[in-house]
Design goal:
The complex is a heterodimer of chains A (about 350) and B (about 270).
Chain A (H helix, E strand, L loop, with lengths): L12 H4 L6 H21 L2 H27 L7 H18 L5 H20 L8 H20 L12 E2 L4 E2 L2 E2 L7 H24 L1 H11 L1 H6 L4 H28 L1 E2 L1 H4 L2 H14 L4 H25 L4 H22 L3 H15 L5
Chain B lengths: L7 E2 L5 E2 L2 E12 L2 E12 L3 E5 L6 H8 L7 E6 L2 E2 L5 H6 L2 E3 L12 H7 L9 H6 L3 H19 L15 H14 L4 E5 L7 H17 L3 E5 L3 H7 L2 E6 L2 E6 L1 H5 L2 H8 L5
Parallel strand pairs in B: 5-10, 5-11, 8-9, 9-10
Antiparallel strand pairs in B: 1-2, 3-4, 3-6, 6-7, 11-12
Helix pairs in contact in B: 3-6, 5-6
Classes of the chains: A mainly alpha (about 350), B alpha/beta (about 270).
Chain lengths: ~350, ~270
């Protein structure tokens, strides 16, 4: 009833190509932003930050990054965990080498470093695609984890082989380390997520996004009508790497605080982010949010229901959790292969007509 | 007619200009198979040039040579009076050669508008950072190119579907969107690979009208492959006939129609 295009006229091409062309969408977007920035920081506590909000924000950045590569440019990647590790270790090195510089700079530099590494491992995509490319990126995953395990320079020769984030602040407010307040870590991650989502949206609705999608949908035809495949693929790897690097840096410095590379950034991480992208919806920014929310929230919900409501033992619930998440993923892919984003689109199309479907 | 360096005048009074593209002794082999054997012909400015021939004659291969997708083993492609160095297909596209495909090669996951805008990629030069912020050059460029794209969309009468994902469109419309995407590049030379394949009479008439209109309004030089002889003879100014990779005829539709080799290739020759 409120969701109407009627009367919402566009008189310029700028208006027509904006991110939320429908007025209702636009206001809802402003409302979500306002709540996220102005309300949540005042009510947040440590449990909410560490169990739900931080992982959601950080995984959403990673999912946006991977979605650009897989969903928009059509280049399959199983190296997300490895690339997140690059972001984490780059961030760690920058933090220890330049302690006086702002955390914002460290995280951005870590993203840039990951972009470079991602482009290097993206070079095979110029010759191979599909499953073969997936295997090539899988090699990146294992190689990077091995590298960070075996070369002590990366973890500053610490005895445990772990890296742990020293205390760093932005404008005098602690962001990393055990004493960082929940609202500060939340705001820090939220700012990055907002910027990443805006940049991703701008890129995907413009020229670069079109050349990515052209390569995804039909690479030979794309080249014949004027898409430079080298440029399109490598920019996709670079932009994707930049986002994934940022998420890796945040995951290490803001969320976990201390990291052992094989545990935190193993192959399971690659699959987790890939599941988020597939369940959320390939080729959709909203889908990245939805997928991250789904896979972060579901275990929490199951745990609350199992332990607190039904009173089952914790270990049984933990096992059930795996079974149920796995089953739900399968059900989801059968019912709606295009993910949560497609369900959302269908719902919106229905809403446009509701309650008068004719 | 051939000796006239500056072109000729067609039967319906259109002025045809100088040579835009010239194929010189092109030979293309795939291993032992000779797809194109020593073929030469030219395409003149403003004309509609047809390439015809039975299945497997090498017509599509010829188009792929022109658009840079195949590299011939022998021979040269001359474009605007100079030999074209070997280049990648996207560089050829940037030189002003656009094409459509025999089996529709649209980007199915994108809307009609995005497909047409993809045709204008060669004109969009803004950098990554400008695009990431959607400010300055990127935004101005988007709007300017959108205007051109909308003109093409108007011209081909596909305004009502501009926001529709291509995957949802029927075949005939897809063919038209593909033509729109090629036209959006404002090509100097437009290559059409069987623009009317699989269409009914009415759709063929529509498409023929669009091709003539494109030639007439934008002055675009067109080279097309088509199997429907009626269409070819009505549309084109000059026709190249190929058979088994060789050129067996070249001239106006009337000349080609009466060429004995062409009649043999199409109707067959008795073996005794």
């Amino acid at each position: 009833m409120f969701y109407r295009e009627a009367g919402d006229f566009k008189t310029s091409y700028e208006q027509d190509s904006q991110t939320f062309p429908i007025k209702f969408d636009r206001f809802r977007y402003y409302a979500v932003l306002a709540i996220a920035f102005l309300v949540v920081p005042f009510v947040i506590n440590d449990y909410w930050a560490n169990a739900i909000l931080l992982p959601f924000l950080i995984y959403a950045i990673a999912a946006i990054g991977l979605n650009i590569l897989v969903g928009y440019a059509g280049q399959v990647s199983l190296g997300t965990g490895g690339f997140m590790a690059v972001g984490a270790y780059a961030c760690y090195k920058f933090m220890t080498m330049m302690p006086e510089v702002s955390m914002f700079v460290h995280v951005l530099l870590a993203g840039g470093m990951t972009a470079i590494v991602c482009v290097v491992f993206g070079l095979p995509s110029l010759r191979i695609k599909g499953f073969y490319l997936a295997v090539a990126t899988l090699a990146a995953q294992f190689f990077l984890v091995w590298l960070f395990n075996r070369v002590p320079w990366f973890y500053n020769y610490s005895a445990s082989g772990q890296i742990s984030a020293p205390e760093r602040d932005v404008f005098g407010i602690l962001i990393t380390g055990p004493n960082a307040p929940a609202w500060a870590t939340y705001m820090f991650s939220l700012i990055f997520l907002t910027l990443c989502a805006l940049v991703a949206r701008n890129l995907t609705r413009g020229t670069i996004g079109r050349s990515w999608m052209a390569i995804r949908d039909m690479d030979i035809a794309a080249e014949i009508i004027g898409v430079n495949p080298l440029k399109a693929k490598l920019t996709a790897f670079a932009v994707s790497g930049f986002f994934i690097g940022i998420s890796g840096a945040l995951f290490f410095s803001v969320y976990l605080g201390a990291v052992e590379v094989g545990e935190a950034f193993g192959i399971t991480k690659s699959f987790l982010v890939l599941f988020m992208v597939i369940i959320g919806g390939l080729g959709s920014i909203f889908g990245s949010f939805a997928g991250a929310a789904f896979l972060v929230l579901l275990p929490v919900v199951l745990k609350v229901v199992g332990v607190d409501v039904l009173g089952w033992p914790t270990d049984i619930v933990a096992h059930f959790q795996l079974v149920i998440v796995g089953a739900l993923i399968i059900v989801f892919l059968i019912v709606e292969p295009h993910g949560l984003a497609q369900l959302w689109r269908v719902a919106k199309e229905k809403l446009r007509l509701w309650p008068f479907p004719h | 007619m051939k000796d006239m360096q500056d072109g000729y005048t067609t039967a319906d009074g259109r002025k045809i200009g100088g040579v835009v593209m010239e194929m010189k002794n092109i030979t293309l082999r795939f291993g032992g198979v000779v797809a194109i054997k020593d073929i030469s012909f030219d395409i003149r400015e403003g004309e509609i040039r047809a390439i015809i021939g039975p299945n497997g004659a090498g017509k599509s291969s010829m188009l792929n040579v022109i658009s840079g997708f195949y590299v011939p083993q022998e021979g040269e492609v001359w474009f605007h009076g100079e030999p074209r160095p070997q280049m990648r297909p996207y560089e050829v596209a940037q030189q002003g050669i656009a094409r459509t495909f025999q089996n529709i090669a649209l980007f199915e996951g994108m809307s009609v508008l995005d497909n047409v805008m993809t045709g204008r990629l060669s004109y969009m030069k803004s950098g990554l950072f400008s695009q990431a912020l959607w400010k300055g050059k990127a935004e101005a460029e988007e709007v300017a190119n959108r205007e051109v794209a909308e003109k093409i969309i108007d011209f081909l009468e596909i305004q009502h579907i501009r926001k529709t994902p291509v995957a949802r469109l029927p075949y005939g419309l897809k063919k038209r969107v593909e033509l729109a995407r090629a036209l959006a590049a404002e090509p100097k030379l437009l290559l059409l690979d069987e623009p009317m394949a699989g269409m009914n009479v009415e759709e063929k008439e529509d498409m023929s009208r669009f091709i003539l209109d494109v030639n007439d309004e934008f002055g675009t030089t067109i080279a097309l492959i088509e199997h429907d002889m009626g269409v070819v003879m009505d549309l084109s100014d000059r026709v190249v006939v190929m058979d088994y990779g060789k050129k067996i005829g070249d001239g106006t539709p009337d000349e080609v129609r009466n060429n004995q080799a062409v009649i043999d290739a199409y109707l067959g020759v008795s073996s005794d």
